[in-house]
Amino acid sequence: QQQVKQSPQSLIVQKGGISIINCAYENTAFDYFPWYQQFPGKGPALLIAIRPDVSEKKEGRFTISFNKSAKQFSLHIMDSQPGDSATYFCAASMRSGNTPLVFGKGTRLSVIA
Amino acid sequence: ETGVTQTPRHLVMGMTNKKSLKCEQHLGHNAMYWYKQSAKKPLELMFVYNFKEQTENNSVPSRFSPECPNSSHLFLHLHTLQPEDSALYLCASSARTGPTSGNTIYFGEGSWLTVV
User: Fold this and answer.
1) How many other C-beta atoms are found inside a 10 Å radius of the C-beta of residue A21?
2) Does A44 reach chain B within 8 Å, measured CB to CB?
3) B73-102 confidence digits (pLDDT tens)
4) pLDDT tens-digit series, residues A48-61
5) Burial class (CB in 10 A: 0-12, 13-18, 19+), A83
6) Are the Cβ atoms of B97 and A100 closer than 8 angstroms?
7) How is A62-86 classified by DSSP, letter by letter?
8) A32/B90 touch (CB, cutoff 8 Å), yes or no
């Protein structure tokens, strides 16, 4: 199965700081890159997504940065809050065909006061 | 509420039992999925159904048997499971598999399975 490599596995950030989670992919045919957020006891939920025709997408405090040549994309959480503490999954898939999303292994983020 | 409902939320079963997990989506989607989530493999795709037809079986042992009677319902039948099968089983749906505009995958809250 195609891989998406996510790092770090866990992250501790001070309240108000910037949380950065990185992902790298192998398949150059991937052209859809979402991030999912999962709180304890809940299923993952779509947070933000990007397509490779743009290098950055911002929604509120959450920003995806995309580097097509390096085959990397990252999630930045500005002004991190304790309520952002969750597990974050990056994912990738192709526009064509019926290939389901391929997920990274997740990053457990803890924002401490 | 994501529109994907899973029951039961918690299940404890012996290795010789037969049980089923149920999933229902109220989103009008045509694709449904089973994922297994554990500490070792956080989001492991098990099965995919498109328009009630199974399109992907990710080398899942036969002790897991999916059933999709219609586009809104998905079951996972369990029999002779092993303790290592204890995990969170997530159901999900999307308009269709593959990424098109707005083709978000919506997850249920999961069924916690413990095999004793």
Assistant:
1) 21
2) yes
3) 999 999 999 999 999 999 999 887 654 444
4) 999 888 999 999 99
5) exposed
6) yes
7) EEEEEETTTTEEEEEESS--GGG-E
8) no
